[in-house]
Amino acid sequence: MNSPTNSLSNSQPTTSKVTVSMVAMPLLKQTGKVFIGPSARNEANSIGLGLSTLNKQQRKDLERATNYALGQSIRHRMLNRQITHQHHTQRISMYTHALSLMSKVYVGNVSFETRELNLREAFGVFGPIKHIHLSYDDVTGQHRGFAFVEYEFAEAAKLSTESMNGVFMTGRNLKVTPMCTEPSFSNPTDASFSYAIGNYDHSQSLWERSRLQAQPVIELIKQESKKYHRIYLAPIHPDLTEDDLKSIFKEFGEIVKCHFPKQPNGSGGHRGFGYIEFTTQNAVEEALKLNKLDLSGQTLYIGTCITPPGAYKFITAPIASNISTATPLSAGAMIDRIKEEALAEWKVRTVNSYD
User: Fold this and answer.
1) What are the pLDDT digits (tens) for 136-172?
2) What CATH number is associated with residue 179?
3) In a 3-state reduction of DSSP, which class is residue 141?
4) What is the pLDDT of residue 323?
5) Which of 141, 258, 351, 355 lies at a CB distance of 3.0 to 4.6 Å from 242, suitable for a disulfide?
6) Within 13 Å of residue 153, how many CA atoms lie on the same side as its CB?
């Protein structure tokens, strides 16, 4: 007779571990046609099932279509590059023209005894002069009583206008006017001014159109310059250094930068003018009170800046050449690069169209 203990142990179920093995399904090749049912037709077409094989002519047509699309993509990219270059060149041209007008002054009521050398000596103290145009009469050989002075920098033109207008020179009071301002042709303050504009730019309409085109850019340049608290100083004695000027003007406020452009000949000397940037506009106003300061035996003229820092570096920066002006080698390299970009984009679009 079995004991209760034995009968209880016999009634408990026995457990065992079952091992399950995963077998990879073999890769089978299709041996017959694929038949697509009505409900699966859309899904099958999206992955290319059920389509007939292209014949030779269809493959040629597909290749021609692909090459045409690729060619269109290349032409589109080249056109975009040229348009971008043209827009950039146009902006540079407008900016350069605006700065050129800002750097010119008209000098009227000039005595007939005054020569170009006299004007260069009188106006050269405010900054480097690019050109002086003193118009002469072909018959008499005398100049017509007016001149145009073009500086390298707009600040020099502004400072000369503020300092030389009304100055008595060889028996006459000069009339100095900035070229970037609007002249009154109907009632000019100087009779020679209207004539001068017509003679210098061939017609008043050309001058007015030129000024009107540049005026929005001039205003943008002036507005940009107001973000910086800078003054322009000239002439600066050759023996004075940036530290010398800092020691004088630091009393008006914190100085961000003091810069004297150097001589291009590599001598290390400065060009006789400079810029000082402060942290506040109040410092600028205080510094302007030192205008016409006698410093190292010569008069130091001080004026506000009307261009932002680096304005002239912008117009002298090299412009990337487009395909029409590039050398054959660079043009070919550029075309190859555009083709590679277009081909890569075309491949991406082709792959994405089947995703």
Assistant:
1) 888 888 889 999 999 999 999 999 999 999 999 999 9
2) 3.30.70.330
3) coil
4) 41
5) 258
6) 28
